[in-house]
Amino acid sequence: MKKNIALITLLLSTNTLAAGGFTWLGAAQEALHTHYPWHVVTFVLIGILLTAAGFLYRMKISAVTNPVIPDKGITFRNIVEAYGKFIYSQCNAVLGTKDAPVYFKFVATIFILIFASNIIGLIPGFLPPTEHLSTTLALGCFSFIYFNAKGCKELGTINYLKHFAGPLWYMAVLIFPIEILSTCIRPVSLALRLNGNMMGDHKVLTTFLNLEVMGFKIAWLGGAIPFYLLGLLVCFIQAYVFTMLSMVYISLATAHHDHAEHH
Questions:
Q1: Average confidence (pLDDT) over 24-32
Q2: SS3 13
Q3: I need a labelling partner for 84 at 20 to 30 A (CA). Which of 31, 127, 180, 258 fits?
């Protein structure tokens, strides 16, 4: 009972933390007399936690006699494998059964990394690193470099660049720069979409948690729950959209078209 009361108090204190600008990482840096960007530290922390989760899953799998048989009930292993099945089904739907195994690792990694970076903002005393433009731009550039590298590897650098010239050689002077520009805009659009939505979600959550009804904070009246659920939905949707668009870009970059069938 005491633990439940403490947990509820911690969750309802989000408005105080947000209004005062308090963060656990900020307090730790003050205590250690260090000053690193909070979004970088949080992103590194998420990476370490996900890596540890991966090693833990690997240990659990190696200890099982028959890994085909799932555990009983809701376990860490079952949750990880359910996530893997979900991501693999999305890869099949967008990339096809042939390419799904090839790009599964990238897709699974990028989704869970963004989702974890989004959802950590719902924990009192933490801010989502995806609220910072440099983080989302780095993720967008990572996706950009990946699908272009895969396009060059699958088609060859010369054939990949030919796709930007269009099907008619005499229109290449006009089409090539337009296609290059539209491709280079992709990481920026990915970054701005993710950054804008997460920043807006965090501001909306903070604003509504600070509202008062008849002198009582809405958070203390249980009004925080719908906004937490909405925030959770936004975190998932933004990670999903970023991942789906990255898969679409991979599919476009690695598609084996005849030159006459371009676009």
A1: 60
A2: coil
A3: 127
Provide the sign of the torsion angle of the four alpha carbons 60, 65, 68, 70, taken in this order: negative
Alpha helices in the chain (DSSP H): 2-12, 14-20, 24-32, 38-62, 76-119, 133-155, 157-162, 172-209, 224-254
Give the closest residue to 131 by CA, choosing from 213, 201, 37: 201
The DSSP call for residue 70 is: P
- Predicted TM-score of the model (pTM): 0.83
Q: Tell me the C-alpha distance between 47 and 116, whole Å.
A: 9
Instruction: Name 18's Cβ contacts closer than 8 Å, sequence gap at least 6.
Output: 205, 206, 209, 210
Residue 112 near residue 50 (C-beta atoms within 8 A): yes
Res 174: pLDDT: 85
Within a 13 Å sphere around the CA of 145, how many CA atoms are in the beta-carbon half?
6
Spatial neighbors of 56 by CB under 8 A, at least 6 apart, are 76
232 with 123: CB under 8 angstroms? no
Q: What is the tens place of the pLDDT at every residue in 142-175?
A: 999 999 999 999 989 898 988 888 777 777 788 8
Structural contact between residues 198 and 121, judged by C-beta atoms closer than 8 angstroms:
yes
CA-CA-CA-CA torsion sign (259, 261, 91, 108): positive
Q: List, in sequence order, every residue forming a beta bridge with 213; answer none if it has no partner.
A: 216
Taking a C-beta distance cutoff of 8 angstroms, is the pair 121, 128 a contact?
A: yes
77, exposed or middle or buried, with CB in 10 Å at 0-12, 13-18, 19+?
middle
Q: At what angle do helices 76-119 and 133-155 cross, to 10 degrees?
A: 120
- Could you tell me the maximum CA-CA distance found in the chain, to the nearest angstrom? 76
User: Residue 262, CB half-sphere, CA atoms under 13 Å: how many?
Assistant: 19
Query: Which residues on neighbouring strands pair with residue 212, listed in sequence order?
Result: 217
- Tell me which residue of 242, 22, 258 sits closest to 140, measured CA to CA: 242
